[in-house]
Structure formats: C-alpha cells, structure tokens
Design a protein that fits this description.
The protein is α+β, with helices and mostly antiparallel strands. The protein folds into 2 domains: about 160 residues, no CATH class; about 170 residues, no CATH class. Helices cover about 50% and strands about 10% of the residues. The chain is built from 18 helices and 9 strands. The strands form 3 sheets. It has a 4-stranded antiparallel sheet with strand order 2-3-4-5. A 3-stranded antiparallel sheet has the order 1-7-6. Strands 8-9 form a two-stranded antiparallel sheet. Helix 12 runs parallel beside helix 15. The longest helix has 22 residues. The protein is elongated and about 90 Å long. The N terminus is likely disordered.
Length: about 400
Amino acid sequence: MKTKAILVSLITLLIMSSCRNKVKQNSSIIDQETQKTMIPIKIVGEIKQHLEDQKRIQSDEDDEIIENPYKRNSRDLELASLVMSEGLKNNGFRPVSDEVFNERIKEIFGIDNLKNPHYKIHVADNHITLFGQQKEDYKFLVRNEFGGFADTENYYLLRKEHLFFEFQSLRYLIKINEDNSYKITVEPYHIHRNKYLFNKDKISLAWLFNNDKPFLSMLLERFGYDKESKINKLMLDSIYNGNSERGELIANLIFVKDSFNKLQIRKGILKYIKENTSTTDNRFIYALGDFMDVLYNGDAKDDSHKIFNEDPSKKFTALEKAEIVANIAYIENPAIEKYKSPESSLVWNNAGSSLYNLSVSHPEVIKIIEEHNYFGLPKMKEIIAKLQEEAPPIGADPE
C-alpha cells in the first residue's frame, strides 16, 4: 500500500514507459539526403575525429574496460548541436531570434536573465545545462555535466542554435562518407519538441500528445511549465483518475518544494482548475479541500492508509501552509458561491468551505494570511470577511 504514497511519480513512470514504446512504433527516423556543402569542410573533418574519439566512451554495457576512455565535453555538444540544427531546419523547424528564444525559455523553463530561482542550471557561452539530478551537490553536477543521459538525465538549451537537446553521440546523428558528403539522421521527437517549444507549432503539440507524453509531463513536473492547459489536464486526470479516493495527491503537482527547498506554487494549474470547475464537476476543488485538512492534521498514521510519501503537515512551514491555504481558498470559495445550490447539492455536498472549517480548528491560519497581506491575492480579504456567513446561527445544534 505504500506505493500510493508515490503515485505521482509512478504515474509519470507508467506514462514514460508506455509512450517510449509508442514513439518507436509510430515514428520512423527521418534521414536527410546526402549533403556536401551545408556544414563547412573543416567542421566535417572535426566531426570525423570526434566520431572516432566517441568510440572510446566507456558504457555500463561494455564487457571489457576500455583503455584510455574518452569523456564527452562541451565541444562534443557543440558539434552535435551544429548537426542537429542542420537536420531540424531541413525538417520544418524555423530558426528563432535571441529575443524569442529568451522569451520561450523564460516561460517554459523559468530562466530569466540566465537565472532560475527554483532549478539548478549551468550557464556556459554556448549552452545552458538543465540538470536532471537536482538533489546532487552543484559541484558534482558540473563535473558530470556531459555524462550519458541514463546517468545524468541532463538536457541542454543551445544558446546559438536556439534549440532544446538531449545529448546524443554523433554516430546517431550523422554518417560521413569518404568524399566528406554526409547524411544527417533526425529522430522525430527532436523535431516536434523543438517546433513546439520555439515555433509554438500546434501540429507538433498534437504529435507529442500521441507519441511523446513523457516529454510533456516532464515540462510540468520537472520544470513547472503550467501555461499549457492540455498538459495540465493530462497530468491532473492521470493522477486523479489513477486513484480517485486519494485525490489529494494532485496537490503534489501544484505545491512543491523546489531544488532549494522553497515553496513553489504552480498557479497555472490552479487557474486551470478554476476554469474547469462547474455545477457538475468539483473533483479537483474538493480534492484540494481534503489536502487542506491533511496539511494541518497530518497524513494517516497507519502505513497502509498513508497518501503521501512525505507528510505535508511536516513538509511545509507554518507560513508555507498559510500561503497554500490562501491559494486553495482563492478558487474554492468563489466556486462554492457560483455553483452550489439545491439543484447541485448531490455534487456540492460539503456543508461549508474548507477555509471556514480550518478557521474554526486552526484560527491561527487566518491571522498569518492577514499579516502577510493576503499573499497578494486581490480578493482574499473579501473571502475571509465572508466566512462569518458560513457560521451556524447562535444556539443552533452543531450537528
């Protein structure tokens, strides 16, 4: 039963395993025609040398120890990016300006002025490394920056070519003939990832949904990209439908501790929930209300009934809890006003709002919200003022 506690991660893994097979089944590798002039002959010669060098990369799958093993470096990445750029341009990718590139990496990866307050990255002249092993020490991450993807899970943003790249050895990208003509091989997922990220290509987004859901899930779960409603829906539905009796787990997607142990609230998902709540559908609103209770009263003591891998009541500070509560109430209470009625009572069947119930059992939360200027939520003061309307009449039977 402990597996319930890590449901979000399991769902992502299931999506990844099933969809990787689908990519292979539904997508053929795209080969370009043999070319002679696009990449300068001097660079072609250098690529040839690196192709030979990369044959000496030690792999866990090797039966024997390679003498004088080769370790990939930044130049390997630069050469691979040149080849990939050429391949993508010949498959419909439209190169973008520095301005567009910087706008998109800010929106999607949270990188503004070459900094990210939530995620460990390394900025170099030609690339930005998005480290996969965020819990590791930063110096360790930089030392192993160009290791194999299976070990590092690193991705790279190419600052000159304006691309997103999963480091591949050159032998998977280019074949050079004796006369220095060559053929570039491009995996379809490289094409569609970059066309979606930087060209905002809707056809590529549809392709990714059909063939590469792991990538879309990663954009939200790892990088916090919550601006695409289709991705928000994908992840929320996967988590909730995977265990509707433990709907509180959707909170793991919204209220997260970043790589520096600071609270990060993905407000784009909250906005999606607000816009997709109705008279007949309050699943996510009520799930977050249940999470509010766990946040203050703790997860189940019995391991077989635990919901979370880490008890939210211990994971977050008092201030962080209050900010989480405020953000949930900010969409829940207006939704109750809008949708709760005698006609919708089978769906909207809670007697009061989660914030009202919490204000009775933990009145200190209201004080913290007020002391911190309602966490910048414009109508939060009004929402709190209305809580007294939910109180039962004086002398009424509490039951």
